[in-house]
Design a protein that fits this description.
The protein is of the alpha/beta class and 433 residues long. It has 15 helices and eleven strands. Strands 1-10-9-8-11-3-2 form a seven-stranded mixed β-sheet, with helices on both faces. Strands 6-5-4-7 form a four-stranded parallel β-sheet, with helices on both faces. The structure holds pyridoxal-5'-phosphate (PLP). Residues 104-106, 159-160, 266-273, 328-329, 373, 375-376, 411-412 line the site of pyridoxal-5'-phosphate. The site of pyridoxal-5'-phosphate has 20 residues, from helix 5 and helix 9. Keywords: Lyase, Pyridoxal phosphate.
Length: 433
């Protein structure tokens, strides 16, 4: 496995530690209440969010995305014999690239983590008297004055910082975002425009996080949102599975063991895909087939899981560089808890090359006019790797995946400037030519 990862070529890895859900009752029971609590918290805050964000007014403050059919991509995925792998009517994109507020999947986890801090402070301060109170009070002058005395801090490759920054500033909290070297200029500018403080680091993501974590130590007015450790983030992401379940049911596509739902989830530290995977297992049990997808230069989750060393394992040991167009996935070490939690729950990991990311980004635009960032094309690119690999294709057949629904999770893109979208497509065309 290490040898394969060192080669930095696309790779399918089936997780040997996966257990049937019947054997995972304990871990699922431990985490089910956290997912339910996150769903209820989003509901409590919805009226306030509708007041704070114009784009949420018409939807009652609910942060949700569409499930988009992508039949136009059916020609892209081929089995090892070169035949079309899936029927067009089974192919979907979960449209978190277009989530309101943060423009990425972080609008679930990041926003939820900020709401957790705000709620705890507001209840302790008596700004709201109980979780049944009207949370729109938190937009009133008294609450804003109080929130202005508190700061959030976070380490980020870009998108997490954006979600914490936009949500935190909307409540009047101060926000410090510690950006790793991958972070794009436009994300920093956008954050400064909403009044966040951007601290630029020449180091990678883990190091930027470490600085932010240390700074917040022992302070009551500085609240560090810890992407590598946070259950608040994780449960916020997990809520997405319930949203997808309602959409599949409405489309008459409820998953069953004969017709499972396959999820292809872009993975950085593992919080977003891990949360979604947990939610999926809770809802569908073994009728979900779950794969995480990482760049060939940043397969930290796969390496942590396969080596059993989790956050102690860094992809730098494999001679990998984190150099990838997928800035949202450019992470060298996984979360401290998600790997262990996923051990019995996750079916497979897949790595993808940048060329695959860009080709799928361009194909999605050509077929459906949908614009996503490179990280968000990882699910689509991962499907190609699985279908074309003999072991991967055997896995697809064993799990009856081609009889069920296939969902590539699109994780970011809405806020990306148009010129950057065009530049990604130009790069993709250069590869093809
Ligand atoms: C953060 C992010 C991910 C992955 O989330 P992790 O919690 O880091 O695994 C995937 N895609 C995009 C666009 C992201 O911003």
């Amino acid at each position: 496995m290490e040898k394969r990862l060192r080669q930095a070529r696309p790779f399918f890895w089936e997780n040997p530690a996966r257990r049937p859900v019947a054997a995972c009752g304990e871990v699922l029971a431990v985490h089910a209440p956290g997912v339910a609590a996150a769903r209820e918290r989003f509901t409590r805050f919805a009226p306030l969010l509708a007041d704070l964000f114009p784009e949420l007014r018409a939807v009652g403050g609910v942060i949700a995305s569409q499930l988009l059919p992508i039949p136009g991509l059916a020609d892209v995925w081929r089995d090892p014999e070169g035949n079309a792998a899936f029927s067009p009517e089974r192919l979907f994109l979960k449209g978190d690239h277009d989530l309101p507020v943060a423009g990425s999947v972080k609008a679930r986890g990041g926003v939820h983590a900020v709401l957790c801090v705000a709620e705890r402070l507001a209840l302790a301060q008596g700004l709201v008297s109980s979780p049944q109170d009207d949370y729109r009070r938190l937009a009133e002058a008294k609450a804003r004055t109080f929130f202005a005395g508190h700061r959030l801090s976070v380490g980020s490759t870009g998108n997490l910082g954006l979600s914490i920054g936009v949500m935190g500033r909307a409540l009047g909290l101060g926000v410090d975002v510690h950006m790793s070297r991958e972070a794009r200029e436009w994300k920093k500018k956008r954050l400064r425009d909403v009044g966040a403080r951007v601290v630029e680091h020449a180091s990678d993501y883990s190091a930027a996080c470490a600085v932010a974590r240390a700074e917040a130590q022992g302070r009551d007015d500085l609240h560090f949102i810890d992407d590598e450790n946070s259950l608040d983030l994780f449960y916020g992401y997990a809520v997405a599975a319930g949203e997808l379940a309602a959409q599949l049911t409405a489309a008459g596509l409820s998953p069953s063991p004969e017709r499972p739902v396959s999820l292809y989830l872009p993975c950085g530290v593992g919080g977003a895909p891990g949360g979604i995977a947990l939610g999926a297992r809770l809802l569908w049990g073994d009728a979900a087939v779950i794969s995480f997808v990482e760049p060939v230069q940043a397969p930290c989750f796969l390496y942590g899981l396969a080596s059993g060393r989790h956050e102690a394992a860094s992809v730098a040991e494999l001679g990998l560089t984190l150099a990838t167009e997928a800035d949202g996935l450019a992470v060298g070490r996984p979360s401290r808890f998600v790997g262990r939690l996923m051990e019995p729950l996750l079916d497979a990991c897949v790595t993808v090359a940048d060329a695959g990311l860009l080709r799928h980004l361009a194909a999605l635009y050509a077929a459906h006019g949908i614009e996503v960032e490179p990280s968000a094309a990882a699910g689509l690119a991962g499907m190609e790797v699985v279908c074309g690999d003999p072991d991967g294709w055997r896995f697809v057949r064993d799990r009856k995946a081609a009889s069920g629904v296939l969902v590539a999770w699109a994780t970011g893109g809405r806020l990306v400037p148009e010129a950057e979208h065009a530049a990604f497509r130009t790069k993709a065309a250069g590869l093809a030519g």
